[in-house]
Amino acid sequence: MEVTNRYVVIKHNIDGAPLESDFELRTEALSLWIEPGKYDVIVKNLYLSVDPYQLNRMKSPGCFQQDMNFAGAISPGQKINGDGIGRVVASGSPEFKEGDLVSWNCMSWGEYSIIKMSPSKMEGAKLRKIEMMEFPLSYHVALLSLSGITAYAGFFEVCKPKKGEKLFVSGASGSVGSLVGQYAKLFGCYVVGCAGSQRKVDLLKEKLGFDEAFNYKEETDLKSALKRYFPDGIDIYFDNVGGEMLEAAIENMNPFGRVAVCGAISEYTDKGRRGAPNMVNVVYKRITIQGFLAADHYKKVYKDFLSTTLEHLYGGRLHVLEDISHGVESIPSAFAGLFRGDNVGKKMVELLADD
């Protein structure tokens, strides 16, 4: 059987803010037949994750890409991959059968994904069946996948919180920030978040339970703003944006404060924009600044992450924010919108309804 597969590629390297016109929708004929002796799995994609870090893979080649072994550089015309879930439509692997719902960290930005597998070395080693069917499928792209693990590991493993400490989280209405703030509140911290609109600020306080939140676009002096919200200083800063916000947070940190650097979206689209925190403060206040990836902590925290998260979900204490576009043709606008601040919560694309 042969199907038509539509997928998205970049036309050229993207070194500034992405535009819809930077992408191209292509079409190919795809056979759903697995050659005998092959262990490949073909998946019909159902939900695809859209994440800001992907822009760093699309830029002109640079030394930083050499360190991104989990997500290497993307060349123009090359298929783009990322987190997603789908249904197996053909399988040569004894581990997966037609009809299985699966999640994987390298689903193509298209309607189908081909996962190369072999008995000795499986590219699909991280392909896993979705067992928990009591939740919406989309949860397996966000809360129960990379965004949730990143938030949990970053907060508990990198920040090493103590009850009663004061946490500031930037990009607080995004896929990771919204979860960090909730984990912190449920743990017993005082939480303040920032976002880019009054609607998002209201959501943080009224739905997610943040103690305070503010619109950073309305602040002319970020250092003074943080001093206003943290008169006794910040113990933990969970950084999703970098730039001037990182500088302002460092200025307001308490001695032995911890900074978990999860992302730097304000710097992704501007080569000249770099956070330059006061390093004298870092030294004399003995501040720890640590970048991290979820993969660093996955094996250690996954069991606790799942147990804690499910307990809060079942108890109605954890709220999931999702921002869903529809159809493969919406991927470019969904991605570009991340850098305009369009999304609220986890941005993903739902493809054609599962047959």
From TrEMBL:
Protein's name according to its UniProt entry: NADPH-dependent oxidoreductase 2-alkenal reductase
Keyword Lyase: no
Pfam families xrefs: ADH_N_2, ADH_zinc_N
Domain Enoyl reductase (ER): residue ranges: 41-349
Source superkingdom: Eukaryota
A molecular-function term among this protein's GO annotations: oxidoreductase activity, acting on the CH-CH group of donors, NAD or NADP as acceptor
Keyword Oxidoreductase: yes
Gene3D superfamilies found in the cross-reference section: Medium-chain alcohol dehydrogenases, catalytic domain, NAD(P)-binding Rossmann-like Domain
Record keywords: Oxidoreductase
Naturally occurring in which organism (per UniProt): Coffea arabica
